[in-house]
């Protein structure tokens, strides 16, 4: 009788241990998958295009708390005893010694590109004297379809929730604005490239005029990396 009871007890203990191991395995797998998705989002790099967060209204304000800031070194040292994560993170984050540091802010906006669909692109250098850009309008054909591209670098730490906001004015009157979510990025020596969806310039005689565009590049922590103005002149044809 006692022997039979011991067998039953051992069977029960085996079931409990097996259940605990399965739960631990499931938990570890869930943690691994979560971290993979989190790191992939931070390291997603160049995106082909983004959808405007909102258009035709004021700049969006964040109604949620920004994620806790975590430097690259801390991320690399997390879960150091987990072999799967230790092997996975270097492929996404690289080494802290691998990235070029040019000094200055963590995020460096290098250039803005006005990119018509069927015409040559115009590159505006944002690393020099940007005060004169609005005084040198880009001549564009009415009704042209185009994108705006931004070329930038993240130097040292992961940046969360980059945004590109602009306001278009004609003779001092606002005629358009948009707020784009650029995303979260990790450090990288190469430039990241963000581009907006295709947009279309106004057409018709009444819309042939000079337009001033005020731009801002910022993040979820309200760090403003650059504000600049540029202009374009809508004509009947390219000049």
Automatic annotation (TrEMBL):
Location in the cell: Cytoplasm
Record-level Gene Ontology MF annotations: GTPase activator activity; Rho GDP-dissociation inhibitor activity
Gene3D superfamilies registered for this protein in UniProt: Coagulation Factor XIII, subunit A, domain 1
Subcellular location, principal: cytoplasm
GO cellular component, one term: cytosol
Name of this protein: Rho GDP-dissociation inhibitor 1-like
Family to which the UniProt record says this protein belongs: Belongs to the Rho GDI family.
Signal sequence, renumbered to the chain: 1-18
Species annotation: Patiria miniata (Bat star)
GO BP terms in the entry: Rho protein signal transduction
Chain positions covered by the region annotation Disordered: 46-66
Keywords: Cytoplasm, GTPase activation, Signal
